[in-house]
Design a protein that fits this description.
This protein is α/β, with parallel strands linked by helices and about 575 residues long. The chain contains 22 helices and 17 strands. Helix content is about 45%, strand content about 15%. The protein starts with a strand and ends with a helix. The model has no long low-confidence stretch (mean pLDDT about 90).
Length: about 575
Amino acid sequence: MTERRLSGTGVAPRSGAGTGVWYDPDAAVALGDPPDPDSVDAERERDRFAEAREVAREELRRARDRTAERIGESEAAVFDAHVQFLDDPQITEDVDAELDSGYPAEHAVRRAFDRVIEEFADLDGRMAERADDLRDVRDRLLRLLLEKERTDLAALPPGSVVLAERLTPSDTARLDPDRIAGFATVSGGPTSHAAIFARSLGFPAVVGVGEALREVDDGAEVVVDGSEGTVVVDPTESTPEAARADADVEIRRDPVATADGTPIEVAANAGTEADVRAAVEHGADGIGLFRTEFLFFDRSSPPTEGEQYEVYREALAAFPDGRVVVRTLDVGGDKPVDYLDRPESENPFLGERGVRRSLGPDADLFETQLRALLRAAGDADGGRLSVMVPLVSTVGEVDAAAETLDSVAASLDAAGASNARPEFGAMVETPAAAFIAEDLLDRVDFLSVGTNDLAQYVMAAARGDERVAGLRDYRQPAVLRAIEATVAAAAGTDAWVGICGEMAGDPDLTPLLVGLGFDELSVSPPAVPRIKRAVAETTRSDARALARRALAAATKQEVTEMLDASR
């Protein structure tokens, strides 16, 4: 058979090889035509629905407890949201109306839920992915009403690669990384709960592969490459070997240096308790990007100062000899928070997000977050806290954020509250920030390049739009030059420069990043061992020469060929 490669979105930079097994949860809850309305006892059906809701509520409680223990409290909170869907008046009233119209409970549930699912599916970003949560709750109720058993994903043969239209949070939470080699889905995005769970578990996964995935036969040999975002069907003999080699990389607990002795910090990106644990397990030197927006998702009100303080303090305790870089709340764009006032925007990625909200409508939340951070820094037993603000475009934004930080510190001092001033930095995600990097460095202790957004803005190619994915590539000369301008601005200063986008997690690009002059690389926890290995195999002098050649290239193809030739 001929090897085939399908493209999607990699969830975590890990690979797995195994036998494809199609999972179709819809088959278990398929419904035939409804009976004659006159033959349906509406009250009996109403009782059936009420009983199914109560059983579902108890199942969700158990699922939440299992997920909290296995993955983390933040991830487990999705099941609290599922309970809220069970009690959502819009849904329950619609079910009642369908029951009154003579539909049996299972048909009433499907009709009521499907209307709401369709509304969410027509939206963008995280709101669209709420449809998966609703499908999860709908199917749970349908299984109970139809008295059907859920397919036991935990009992699949070892080495299985799960193939599906989509995976719900309940599905993903039951996957066993020690048995399942990975999964791939037709639909879904990188911010779905299934993707978040997979990242936390260090699970090889590719989502959003599209209709081509349906052509993969049950039982086919499949390799899931989460680093490249590819699914390889009927691979050659060498491809699975590469996947197995990827899984066998040695975990290095100590800091790493290049082959000629230049130390490079290899940190991890995190947003949940499970991410922090995974970072420690995979040998990260610290946390290079703590995404605090995960604390604000899937709840009806913001986390309190006390709740945030405990989370930040635990992260610092996990790295007593390392650094934890916390990004202040970054919402807007594709990361809406339901309880925050967020006016509609024709282009939310160019609208009110990141530090713009922190200095505007979310100023109170910003101050509360800074209070929690400074208190955690003051009470930390080891661990160095750094705080950075996202989506900076002007010097004025950095000045205003720094003034707020100073004001919060003064108020804590006045109240006699233990606190410590952290390192203060800014993210470089906009071309504007790259152009004014030298001015920013007069005001901050460090800069961190967020390549996902930087590539989007430099190339005017929206994240999530696969039609322009080729433009939104880190190997584009314009993107590389924006990155180089940022790093070069720090030369000769006391400031350090890190990188925390997906580009940092590709070991094939590690020599280029070392050559550009980065002091820190922050990647997903499972990628840490591979990046440390790549750093140790890199010679700084050779890396600098490679960077110079790449920066002189005129096309992405030239850069790609140059990188391929250097391996």
